[in-house]
UniProtKB/TrEMBL annotation:
It comes from the Eukaryota. Belongs to the glycosyl hydrolase 17 family. The keyword Hydrolase applies. The keyword Hydrolase applies. Signal peptide: none annotated. This is Glucan endo-1,3-beta-D-glucosidase. Keywords: Glycosidase, Hydrolase.
Amino acid sequence: MLEDSSFGPSSLPLRYVTINFPCLMWELDSCFGYVQEVESLGINYGQVGNNLPQPERVLQLLRSLKVTKARIYDTNPQILTAFANSNVELIVTVENAMLSTLTDPNQAYQWVYTHIRPYIPATRITGIAVGNELFTGGGGDTTLVTYLVPAMVSIHAALVRLGLNQYIQISTPNSLAVLEESFPPSAGSFRPELNSIMPQYLQFLAATKAPFWINAYPYFAYKDDPSKIPLDYVLFNPNPGMVDPNTKLRYDNMLYAQVDAVIFAMAKMGFGGLEVRVSETGWPSRGDENEIGASLENAAIYNRNLMRRQLRNEGTPLRPNMKLEIYVFALFNEDMKPGPTSERNYGLFQPDGTMAYNVGLSALSSTTSSTSSASISLTSNATPVIFLFEFF
């Protein structure tokens, strides 16, 4: 990820009471029958663990939380079957290793016929992520990006042949490192080495009316330069913010600045009308000694503030009237993920069904009236449930 020295939402006074009683994730619906659905909020459902609950339990969790969008990192038939006849929209993934094969239209047709068609319409597959972070060498192979657009074209042609293209969008999640410049947002530009292939990808998105997906993690920018980047700015907490000197737009959090930097970068290539969606964002609740900022407190604040924004259907300063669709990373802590400790601690839930930390996944009103509204946060280890009362 690139460092971003851009500067988060005004917070409101809170009063709270703590009521101690256990509530596992599969019991949430009976504990709280009034959790509010957020149309623009999704969640990443990773499976790199040996102790994760069965997909049927996961579906029960998502229903309890009123989350209706999820992304998986494969086309796991057990998940696709379990999610049939639910209201959960799924983005599935073509693994990086499959890209070269799927440039062949016949192979792409066979893949769609085998991995997608049997589950539709019962399972609501609405997106196909072709690879992950390919422009920046996702998976350690910098050559895979050459297969990206041909594979997307072949998969789209297969969807057209099967009459599924009107229901399913095709894109690829990108690391923020595709940007050469990200601050201020109006300076956003793609890395020069992408100048030949990026326009082909953007042209495909424009032709198929698909969004640009970005994996945006303000955490990484803060970890790499905590002395210069205000923590409140990356956590959506109250802060002075920053004003883009070119547009005069004010940014009170880094995530929105990163998204707008991507919009400006696309516009400079002639594709300013494309929608940007955040395919991943999150904050680790634990990290190694050198992973500054990785803590339960910061993870809870980041995700809680993010979800409050989502309940208000906010857009970015550049596109205030277009709600920003965001997929939180991740649903579970995944114990088999390689890398530093933080990689195994992005989950909102522990695999045993308890919350990893307090996070507001519930009914904060998006109104701006003077009436109060309630927000629910659940703690780990199935202990306190904290009711937060906010006054506007």
